[in-house]
Amino acid sequence: AQSVTQPDIHITVSEGASLELRCNYSYGATPYLFWYVQSPGQGLQLLLKYFSGDTLVQGIKGFEAEFKRSQSSFNLRKPSVHWSDAAEYFCAALSGGSYIPTFGRGTSLIVHP
Amino acid sequence: DAGVTQSPTHLIKTRGQQVTLRCSPKSGHDTVSWYQQALGQGPQFIFQYYEEEERQRGNFPDRFSGHQFPNYSSELNVNALLLGDSALYLCASSLGVGGGGNEQFFGPGTRLTVL
Fold first, then answer.
1. Over the stretch A52-95, which tens digit does the pLDDT of each residue have?
2. Which of B4, B48, B100 shows the shortest C-beta gap to A43?
3. Which residue in chain A has the smallest CA separation from B6?
4. Given its phi and psi angles, is residue B109 left (phi above 0), alpha (psi -120 to 50 degrees) or beta?
């Protein structure tokens, strides 16, 4: 079955520190891959997406993600975290012929001053 | 430019009741998708509407139904509510059906509590 796994339920970092959020997928073929952010009381906002080509994808708010086929991973990174980055982050995947995305359970990012 | 709007913001119902949630898509969008997000979980796809028809459906029972109006707005109806239906219901709009190529914009959601 197709699945998306975010192994970390919570991640705590200090402001200014680097960040990496993990995402692994299980699909028959390489799916489209996405990262979303959800702030309290808000809907999901798309940070970045990967369809094909360059495996390092740049997104909004200074985020980037790297697709690694050999590891079935699509990890999200940011070199220096800001307090406003505290939120819930969701990885999602969509197979090429489908309209139905699969989301991971999310990782809650806590930022200490 | 108004984004995706949903109403109501919060709703409390009792088991067995019926509920209707509403969504207005982002200006220029013609496709609406609905998701259920249980506490501590990622969103789960319920169904997608395009041209006033249900185009795709996730693994949800027939108690979940929807409608899309000519102005592209949409309703989600849930009958015979169960305690397990308590969740945040998200609406997302996009231009055209299709997978990853059509970015979805999400509304803030409706928090449904079933007692």
1. 889 999 999 999 999 999 999 999 999 999 999 999 999 999 88
2. B4
3. A43
4. left
